[in-house]
Design brief:
about 375 residues, alpha/beta, Rossmann fold, 3-stranded mixed β-sheet, about 40% helix
Length: about 375
């Protein structure tokens, strides 16, 4: 048996592949175009593992995807492939439209062509799992109930709009063509192999480098936080037993303000890796102008997946963030490698400062 994972060299995708192969002998065909955030170093432990077949390529390459589907006959596809950084989407929305919308369309069509002539029971057992985000639901007031699966889709950034569009395509391909799909909406992930343009890894990396920790606005933007290993276990459970054609919210029940996250990380670093001058890392925090259209609050109601599939997160925020900070302290070579090349070039273009001076605003 085989599954095809798209975007499997990125943050969540690589964690999923590693966790999957730690628990299963089922082969993983891993398709990733290795953009700036895709990193084969994440998967170095699988270099000699015959169960992991890596292919460099784009989900929008219909010829390549068709060849992979025919050759490997996967029983399921897990689609992580996406552009996912809000700041990047604000400054370059075209790439998000192309990759997240057009790319998903091309992938769905390739999969439909493969799935349609499959014999029973392979056809009925096949699954296409689309990994999405809570950002498609828009922003919540502080006292509003958390997002449920029935919440209106109200994206506010080019990124979230592109993901919402891809969600609609996936849903339509099920209702129009019968493609057996599943969609998950997750809250903010954190953990090992997280590319340091996002809040938690950026705070850790900048703090250790003695750089400013710029926080957007007043830092009171609230997010629900989910340890990436918990997200991976939830996806595996939805793939195993989820009801075809439906969506599942995956959350950590950990609503935290961005500023509180930053202070928490600083406190952990004060204990685990004190500054040489003895001062607290919080001294590096600086508030900067908020980004355009910054959503104020996201919150996930994850009761459906717990009630229907028996899943709930294993990590609290306190245990997950401690593991995450320790991982970054123990993997400084990985950090140095991902900060080279395309990422550093983008930082200079985005923030108008040499990469060595980089201190991009921290936001989720």
């Amino acid at each position: 048996m085989t599954i095809l994972v798209t975007g499997g060299a990125g943050f969540i995708g690589s964690n999923f592949v590693l966790d999957w192969l730690a628990k299963s002998d089922e082969t993983v065909v891993n398709l990733d175009k290795l953009s700036y955030a895709g990193n084969l170093q994440n998967l170095s432990s699988l270099e000699k593992d015959s169960r992991h077949l890596f292919v460099k390529g784009d989900i929008g390459d219909a010829t390549l995807v068709a060849e992979l589907l025919v050759r490997h006959q996967p029983r399921a596809i897990v689609n992580f492939a996406a552009e996912s950084h809000v700041d990047r989407s604000i400054h370059g929305p075209g790439e998000f439209v192309q990759n997240n919308i057009v790319g998903t369309y091309q992938l769905l069509e390739s999969v439909r062509s493969y799935w349609s002539p499959l014999p029973a029971p392979a056809k009925s057992n096949f699954r296409f799992l689309h990994v999405s985000t809570d950002e498609v639901f828009g922003s919540l007031d502080k006292s509003a109930p958390a997002f449920t699966e029935r919440h209106a889709i109200e994206p506010n950034s080019p990124y979230s709009a592109s993901k919402a569009a891809s969600d609609h395509l996936v849903r339509a391909w099920h209702h129009t063509y019968g493609l057996p799909v599943l969609t998950t909406h997750c809250s903010n992930n954190y953990g090992p192999y997280h590319f340091p343009e996002k809040l938690i890894p950026l705070v850790i990396v900048n703090a250790l480098a003695g750089k400013t920790l710029p926080v957007y606005g007043d830092g009171q933007q609230i997010r629900d936080w989910l340890y990436v290993k918990d997200h991976c276990s939830a996806i595996a459970r939805v793939l195993e037993a989820g009801q075809v054609g439906t969506t599942y919210n995956i959350g950590g029940w950990n609503e935290k303000a961005n500023l509180d996250i930053v202070r928490n990380i600083c406190s952990l670093l004060d204990t685990l890796k004190p500054r040489s001058d003895g001062k607290p890392y919080q001294d590096q925090i600086a508030f900067v102008t908020d980004r355009p259209g910054h959503d104020r609050r996201y919150a996930i109601d994850a009761r459906k997946i717990e009630q229907e599939l028996g899943w709930k997160p294993a990590e609290s925020f306190e245990t997950g963030i401690a593991k995450t900070v320790q991982w970054y302290l123990s993997n400084q070579d990985w950090v140095a490698n991902v900060q080279s090349g395309a990422y550093r070039d983008w930082v200079q273009t985005q923030y108008g400062a040499p990469a060595a001076e980089e201190a991009s605003p921290v936001a989720a």
